[in-house]
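ok so I'm stuck.
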Amino acid sequence: GTAISEAKQDIRLLDDSDTVEAPTSNADGQEEGDSAARPVKKLRQVEFCLPCDFQQDVYSKPPSYTHVHGLKYDPANRPKKHPPTNEVCKCKPSGKDGVVTCDDHCLNRMVMTECVGDKSKSEKNPYWNCNAGPNCGNRAIGLRKYAKCRPKREQGKGWGLVVVDGVKKGGLVQEYGGEVIDEATKEARLAEWARDHPNDPNFYIMSLEPGWYIDARVKGNLARFINHSCGPNCHLVPTNVAGNMRVAVVALRDIKPGEFLCYDYQFD
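replied:
not stuck anymore, here's the structure
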């Protein structure tokens, strides 16, 4: 988040009765000394501050950005998909609607891979790795089953993100969305931003996989508002979804409704 402090500045004004004498020149075209100048009245100093309604309007809205629902790739410069493993989890479908399978003991979940596909489908997905179908409990990122959240100003940190209905330990909070960029693009963007905005401490670049990053400064989702904490209630889990790496924000503990979300940025 970005906080805008109250701006105050001194403005010097002249009374209507004040006069300023233009300097006179001698025959050689040079200005004459103080003896030729007439005294000028002292300037009146007044204090100026931003109107309250303007400040409230700035504080009431989060900084603008383009909202995206996931990762945005450059078709000409993007990471290669990871090949299928041809491994299928051993979880057995319950056969009952609403009874979730593929819990913490699911083989795919343990290796940070989401379940994909359904054996009952006529067209087999090359990344098919589960038979549980719609009752599978390991497809939250692919189905965008995120917790309901909203931006809110967090004291001392600018804009933050609160969870509306709460999240259970191990639950998916959000996916970190944005533009996928390579190492060279990341370094160029960081250098440009540091040069043009030396007083902006906000950081939006997240590691995706070796050599690739997610930049959520211009294009991103709600996860961009989550602030840093050394005592976090969330952590980041890189997850393979049908061959593409994605970053899940997962609850480390039960998070109460209205609580601010945070994770450790792990700055070097």
